[in-house]
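Support reply, case 0932

Customer input (verbatim):
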Amino acid sequence: MRISHIAIWTDRLEELKDFYATYFSGVIGQKHVNLSKGFESYFVSFDNDIAIELMSRKDINQKADKELLGYCHIAFAMKNKDDVFSMTELLRTNGYQVIGEPRTTSDGMFESVVMDPDSNRIELCCD
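Our regenerated output:
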């Protein structure tokens, strides 16, 4: 068994799609539109066959303004510490918020945490 995909609601569908394609080499699938439900989505797939489904629906438009119980972040495995540093700095330079500077955690993982355009947490990590 494996994880197929993780879904994210957004009101900035095109911007989020472009973000994951640009910075994480996501491959964008065909846009799905259901006019009767006001629903649109893209699947963005990655090298390991896991995908993110980015979804938008007209009646879902409220964001959490703080951390809540439930899903916390998506983690992207980088090749090494230099890649974590480089990607963190690239995202910062391009205007994305870095909320966790590169560091070694108590469990030995090297990581940083950045926010995507919708303020979803993205962990950049390596062993």
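We compared this against your earlier run and they match. Two observations from our side: The chain has two helices and nine strands. Helices lie at 13-24, 81-93. Please reopen the case if you see a mismatch on your end.
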